[in-house]
């Protein structure tokens, strides 16, 4: 079928494009390359069934044009990463709210099924072990830029829900919990690639805050097949679905694991949130998903362990370093 992917040159988007093409679909991708990279798509750059358009989801006319005739739309484009949200808050809000509105309107007009990326940030400071899709959100002050990403994504979810109820849009919302793997960059705050680059360079691994924060990480190659299954599952339409792993680890222990895995002599250094993010930053102590709904809907069960994830990120970083070498 004909498929449209926003954020196609991004970390998750590029893996999705490869998967869709290998399944025989015709894929049109859109990316403004603000955080995505053309190198992420080098394996499919000359594929006869793939076309990449450089442009923005804020261009409603372009989004409508590219969506026309498509049966499925995967909306992955967004302003992401804690540093991006901190430094470009206004631009991020416009992209994540108005851009999504353009994609949702275009998918509805085209009669396409929509899969839209949301985030575990939706749950805010809710530290429940095993967050389910109907758990309450606990969000800090809207005057703290830390929560603007969560607020924008919440508006996106409400918008999609309204289109589904009032205009018949078939859509599923995906709440990603720390999806990780090759091609993810640490430049925007993503912790595993950042730690890996620091360890391979023999630099101190920079932990923000105490390092006692607990997170769960899921391999991108476990997530991608679930996306294509969920968009084709009518029972998922109108729902938000968690996708992630439930293998918890503290950031301190994660840093130690990466030091061992890279055979690095790096130490661990600690930077207060105030120094890293500026005044008013808030973090949550724990974030762990319950993915029972995803398992029920499409059989989602992550197969790769945290060790597998770290190994894949190390290999990807080493390959990038080799490609960049003169």
Main β-sheet, in a few words? 7 strands, parallel
Strand content bin: 15-25%
Instruction: Look at the structure and give the CATH class of the domain at 2-180 and 219-245 and 288-302.
Output: Alpha Beta
Number of helices: 11
Characterize the overall form. globular
Order of helices and strands: EHEEHEHHEEHEEHEEEHEEHEHEHH
* Spatial strand order of the main sheet: 3-2-1-4-5-7-12
Low-confidence stretches: none
Cα(first) to Cα(last) distance is 41 Å
Rounded radius of gyration (Å): 19 Å
| CATH architecture descriptor text of the domain at 2-180 and 219-245 and 288-302 | 3-Layer(aba) Sandwich
Number of strands: 15
What name is given to the CATH topology of the domain at 2-180 and 219-245 and 288-302?
Rossmann fold
Helix content: 40-55%
Q: Would you identify the CATH H-level superfamily of the domain at 2-180 and 219-245 and 288-302?
A: NAD(P)-binding Rossmann-like Domain
Instruction: Determine the mean pLDDT.
Output: 93
Structure description:
With 326 residues, this protein is an alpha/beta fold. It has a domain at 2-180 and 219-245 and 288-302: Rossmann fold, CATH 3.40.50. Helices cover 40% and strands 19% of the residues. It contains eleven helices and 15 strands. It has helices at 11-22, 60-67, 82-87, 89-110, 148-167, 191-200, 220-231, 251-261, 273-277, 292-298, 306-324, and strands at 2-6, 26-31, 50-54, 72-75, 113-119, 129-131, 171-176, 179-180, 205-208, 214-216, 218-219, 239-243, 248-250, 268-271, 288-289. It has a seven-stranded parallel β-sheet with strand order 3-2-1-4-5-7-12, with helices on both faces. It has a two-stranded parallel sheet with strand order 6-15. Strands 8-11 form a two-stranded parallel sheet. Helix 1 (11-22) links the parallel strand 1 and strand 2. The longest helix has 22 residues, at 89-110. The N and C termini lie far apart (41 Å). The relative contact order is 0.13.
């Amino acid at each position: 079928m004909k498929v449209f992917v926003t954020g196609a040159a991004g970390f998750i988007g590029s893996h999705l494009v490869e998967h869709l093409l290998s399944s025989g679909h015709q894929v049109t991708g859109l990316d403004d390359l603000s955080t995505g990279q053309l190198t992420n798509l080098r394996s499919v750059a000359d594929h006869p069934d793939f076309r990449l358009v450089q442009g923005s989801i804020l261009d409603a006319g372009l989004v409508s044009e590219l969506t026309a005739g498509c049966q499925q739309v995967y909306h992955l484009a967004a302003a992401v990463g804690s540093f991006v949200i901190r430094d470009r808050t206004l631009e991020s809000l416009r992209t994540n709210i108005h851009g999504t509105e353009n994609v949702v309107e275009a998918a509805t007009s085209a009669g396409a099924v929509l899969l839209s990326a949301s985030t575990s940030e939706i749950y805010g400071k809710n530290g429940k072990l095993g967050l389910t899709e109907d758990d309450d959100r606990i969000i800090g002050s809207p005057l703290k830029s830390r929560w603007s990403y969560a607020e924008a994504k919440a508006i996106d979810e409400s918008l999609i829900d309204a289109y589904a109820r009032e205009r018949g849009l078939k859509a599923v919302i995906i709440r990603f919990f720390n999806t990780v793997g090759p091609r993810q960059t640490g430049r925007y705050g993503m912790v595993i690639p950042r730690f890996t680059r620091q360890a391979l360079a023999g630099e101190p691994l920079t932990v923000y805050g105490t390092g006692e924060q607990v997170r769960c990480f899921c391999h991108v190659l476990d997530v991608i097949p679930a996306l294509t299954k969920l968009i084709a599952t009518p029972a998922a339409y109108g729902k938000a679905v968690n996708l992630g792993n439930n293998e918890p680890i503290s950031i301190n222990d994660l840093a130690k694991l990466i030091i061992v895995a890279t055979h690095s002599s790096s130490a661990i250094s600690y930077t207060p949130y105030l120094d890293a993010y500026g005044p008013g930053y808030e973090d949550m102590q724990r974030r762990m998903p319950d993915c029972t709904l995803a398992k029920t809907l499409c059989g989602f069960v992550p197969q790769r362990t945290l060790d597998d994830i770290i190994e894949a990120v190390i290999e990807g970083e080493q390959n990038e370093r080799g490609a960049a070498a003169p």
